[in-house]
Amino acid sequence: MEKLSIIVPCLNEEQCIRLFYERVNEVLRTLPVEHEYIFVDDGSGDRTRKILRELSDGDERVRYIAFSRNFGKEAAMYAGMKAATGSLVTIMDCDLQDPPELLKDMYGGIADEGYDCVACRRTTRKNEPRIRSAFARLFYKIINRFTEVEIVDGARDFRMMTRKMTDAVLSIREVDRFSKELFSWVGFKTKWLEYENVERAGGSTKWSFKKLTDYAVNGIESATSAPLRINLWAAILFMLAALGFAIADIAIAASQGTVTELFILLPVLFFMAAIILFGMFIMGEYLRKIFGQVKARPMYIISETEKDKDK
Ligand code: UDP
Ligand code: MG
């Protein structure tokens, strides 16, 4: 029988944990899998840890990891995946915004349809502040311009993965993790389930505007070094401007016999700026290489070899 590891990052979720546990248990009863919970207490200041202790006292399938302080959801997901022993791994928010009923379809997608991963995306952002939705949309537009793999708008971290895919994600050792990109980057066949936004079961969102902005900027930085190339385009633009001003100067000198000092300086200034920007572009190119080498992602990820073909 397959074993499902359920990873649950928790930050100050005292109002949700028990509710979550009951609701998920109900769904698990209908699935032909063994299971374990791995709750990750991401430095909560409320009764989260106490509740986790109690749950694990009453149910040996409940495991928990408590961080020494708040390290963020990305770190919590990584810790959970690392500790997971199941042949299937799922990541769920504690606030029941990830509907547990979907676990059935996810399991079906992997067990019956042969997908490596079944992930969820929200089709609506109902009940979310408009401005937050607008920024989220802008973020996905920008990041998808730059990254080589697609990062699906509205994608949740809520997904079920095979052991193969989980190990692939774990093989990426980056410290600044942006899992939404990593899940796409490792490849494999992913099925997308869609659902409408659900409200939190209790408590409040843990993402302030500042935290979300940090998350977005960090996501772009981790996923791609393409913005460094902007220097090249800026250099070309400044060089063209310098050329334009120089031609204008010559034309003015030819017609009026003299050019003001400011106009003589303009092409020189733009030319110098272009040279400096070009130098920064060259440095950026080496930075890109160093960045890639330091991230040290695997060069490729194997999906199957002859040893797997009969499984
Ligand atoms: N979370 C976490 N560490 C953090 C922020 C959030 O472990 O620093 C957890 C949180 O407890 C919840 C999940 O990540 O289980 C998603 O957070 P939240 O529901 O606040 O985000 P939203 O649904 O509003 O995007
Ligand atoms: Mg939530």
Please describe what this structure looks like.
- This protein starts with a strand and ends in a 16-residue tail after the last helix.
- The longest helix is centred in the C-terminal third of the chain and has 35 residues, at 261-295.
- The chain is elongated and about 95 Å long.
- It has 2 domains: 2-224 and 299-305, Spore Coat Polysaccharide Biosynthesis Protein SpsA, Chain A (Alpha-Beta Complex), CATH 3.90.550; 226-295.
- It has a 7-stranded mixed β-sheet with strand order 3-2-1-4-6-5-7, with helices on both faces.
- It has helices spanning 17-28, 48-58, 73-83, 102-111, 130-146, 163-170, 179-185, 209-223, 230-256, 261-295; strands at residues 3-10, 34-41, 62-66, 88-91, 117-122, 155-162, 190-195.
- Helix 9 (230-256) runs antiparallel to helix 10 (261-295).
- By secondary structure, it is of the alpha/beta class.
- Helix content is 49%, strand content 14%.
- Bound molecules: uridine-5'-diphosphate and magnesium ion.
- Magnesium ion binds at residues 93, 95, 97, 200, 205.
